[in-house]
Amino acid sequence: MKLKFIIPVVGDFSAYSEELAAYLKPHLTAETELEFSSLQYGFETVETELAGMVNGSQVVMSVRENAEDFDGVFVDCFDDPGVYALREMGLIPAVGPYEAAVTTALSLGERIGIITTDQAGILNEEKKARAFGVSERITSIRALDLMVENIKEEKERVLASLADLCADMVQKDRVSVICLGCTAMYYIYDDLLQILSERRIRVNVIEPVLNGCVTLESMVRMGFNNFVPGEVAFDSLHWSQTEGRRN
């Protein structure tokens, strides 16, 4: 099985890809191969609706170019940019971390929490919950008050904040499952679980990259394709981009 793992932003992510591969490998079957790629055009982060729209279109076109080489595609951003459009194309199964995490959470608890990056992220998570039809089940949304690019730079602060937020959400908001609302948080997942165990805080914590990749792998193994019925015609699409162009 070969899965396309798209980092839906512009930049060099070779080191990040190696870290992710090492993190995911123990949890995937031996025959599953991940191929990592990022975008040539678009924004360097996805933290706005505009960035998600622009980068999502790039995700779609990158998959369209070589979908036949893969069994499925995972888009590494908690906003799932381009994922629904990939499902509209229906070429291969497509999974994003948000929908997969929330779907798993719905089976684990009645009251769900999400920890996002900053205050703007809270508004975005509320919007996504309404769009996905789960706003009544997502009862707690908290923020780290950090930008995405700072999450890996401040490990100890992030880890302590995550543990405190989890404890607060369990005690005050009565959640039994919490989704980490940014894929950049993957690198401290095991440490977070250890701290919560030591503090005897009983809660299910979903790390969206791992959960999403396992979901996609299972989908492919069972022969499913989460396509959206209908056809997408590219005949009328005008798609021309030039490096450095400003219009």
From TrEMBL:
Coiled coil: none annotated. GO terms for molecular function: amino-acid racemase activity. Transmembrane segments: none annotated. InterPro entries: Asp/Glu/hydantoin_racemase (IPR015942), Hydantoin_racemase-like (IPR052186), Iso_Racemase_Enz_sf (IPR053714). It holds the Pfam family Asp_Glu_race. Gene3D superfamilies: 3.40.50.12500. PANTHER family: PROTEIN DCG1. Belongs to the HyuE racemase family. This is Hydantoin racemase. The lineage of its organism: Bacteria, Bacillati, Bacillota, Clostridia, Eubacteriales.
